């Protein structure tokens, strides 16, 4: 059976989505949440790691914290950029204050930091605030 594996950001279930359904708002078979929403979704560390390890579609993570002014400045730009990748890339946000082990495990030295994961490996990283156009350009060049 063909298709792409996608982890549900709500329940953590792995779903197989047929190629021709990726653009038609596929839903999780377990909880019904949209899998390709075109939105940057806040995730917990376990769900992020599962998605980074198993998903067949590139995953971009924004490591951030609520107390970080630059993170708050970039948040709407990152959210807006997610809509440009509705069928090809999924964007998530990981709160490093809530999950301090993530910062240590992934070597995050400053926030905001974005990283691209494909096939279980980190492929690219950028630290610092970017406007939407630069985020989109960086993601396209990195996947």
Task: Walk me through the structure.
With 143 residues, this protein is an alpha/beta fold. 29% of the residues lie in helices and 24% in strands. The chain has helices spanning 45-54, 69-82, 100-105, 132-142, and strands at 4-7, 14-17, 41-42, 59-64, 90-95, 113-118, 121-127. The strands form two sheets. It has a five-stranded mixed β-sheet, sandwiched between helices. The chain has a two-stranded antiparallel sheet with strand order 1-2. A hairpin with a 6-residue loop joins strand 1 (4-7) and strand 2. The longest helix has 14 residues, at 69-82. It is globular. The two termini are 25 Å apart. The relative contact order is 0.17.
Strand order in the sheet with the most strands: 3-5-4-6-7
Separation, N- and C-terminal Cα atoms: 25 Å
Count helical runs: 4
| Helical content band | 25-40%
What is this structure's SSE topology?
Layout: E1 4-7, E2 14-17, E3 41-42, H1 45-54, E4 59-64, H2 69-82, E5 90-95, H3 100-105, E6 113-118, E7 121-127, H4 132-142
Parallel strand pairs: 3-5, 4-5
Antiparallel strand pairs: 1-2, 4-6, 6-7
Helix pairs in contact: 2-4
């Amino acid at each position: 059976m063909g298709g792409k594996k996608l982890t549900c950001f709500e329940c953590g279930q792995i779903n197989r989505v047929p190629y021709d359904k990726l653009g038609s708002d596929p839903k999780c078979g377990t909880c019904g949440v949209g899998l390709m929403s075109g939105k940057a979704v806040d995730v917990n560390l376990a769900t992020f790691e599962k998605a980074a390890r198993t998903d067949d579609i590139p995953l971009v993570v924004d490591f951030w914290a609520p107390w970080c002014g630059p993170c708050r400045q970039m948040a709407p730009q990152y959210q807006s950029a997610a809509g440009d990748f509705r069928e090809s890339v999924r964007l998530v946000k990981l709160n490093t204050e809530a999950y301090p082990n993530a910062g240590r495990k992934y070597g995050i030295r400053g926030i905001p930091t974005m990283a691209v994961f494909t096939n279980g490996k980190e492929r690219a990283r950028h630290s610092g605030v970017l406007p939407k156009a630069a985020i989109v350009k960086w993601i396209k060049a990195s996947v």
